[in-house]
Fold this sequence. Notes:
Blueprint: H1 15-26, H2 35-48, H3 54-63, H4 68-79, H5 90-107, E1 112-116, H6 123-134, E2 143-149, H7 152-160, H8 173-179, E3 180-183, E4 186-189, H9 191-194, E5 197-202, H10 208-211, E6 219-221, H11 231-244, E7 250-252, E8 266-270, E9 275-279
Parallel strand pairs: 1-2, 1-6, 2-5, 6-7
Antiparallel strand pairs: 3-4, 7-9, 8-9
Helix pairs in contact: 1-3, 2-4, 5-6
Amino acid sequence: xAFEPENLGLSSAGLPLLRDLIHERTGLFYDNxxxxxxxxxxxxxxxxxxxxxxxxxxxxxxxxxxxxxxxxRRVMDALSVQETYFWREIAQIQGxxxxxxxxxxxxxxxxxxxxxxxxATGEEPLTIAMALSEAGWFDRARITIHASDxxxxxxxxxxxxxxxxxxxxxxxPFLREKYFVERxxxxxxxxxxxxxxxxxxxxxxxxxxxxxxYASSPVIFCRNAFIYFSPASVxxxxxxxxxxxxxxxxxxxxxxxxxxxxxxxxxxxxxxQAFVYVKRESPTDV
Length: 286
């Protein structure tokens, strides 16, 4: 059914302004063909506020300083896409474990920090931890994994760590038996796996201040976020990461995402069945 705000007692006035503000603050971009989707997701927040139009909500987000953080957290929860699962795009993670990490360990004289962002409800960082554990890396190197997402609701679920069958659709059964226990109809990571995640945090990728504590990681998994960003937003985020990431460092993006026409700060490296972007020692003249 097409989105018709009038049926909810709402005026669509201000929706384009609201879209542009969200793009500016978060990087998320809704083109003209997806404005209805944005309206669908934000309409409950507008109604809860007692507003009659999206323009009222726009003014609240842009100018009201009394509780801007709380309101933006609700917006990010409403817009967050939390569709993920264990062992997703596993060829890339296996390429990291088998090819990238050995070279990084040889070159590094400090603990290896891995940042997973956006991590949604936690399946990706836990997958990375399982893959590292299966390869014996936690016994051979000092490795920490940090996980972040723009949605506070997603991070709350990740911290609780209770997963249903849908999250396990690609995970080999023997790994579920090894790393999870069933309780009251859901599966929880065993303490040895849960403790591999050093921190869970709420981070907006479009905020330089929020990414700063983690962006110096030599390994960043930033997969399936840029498909929702505008090209300008992708470039801004990637360049902000490049400013902080050391050399050598490795940036993993989703299989359907490409940085080749976005930045000259990274070069594409083949991992047999997957790929990774490697930070250049200095930008090219392109």
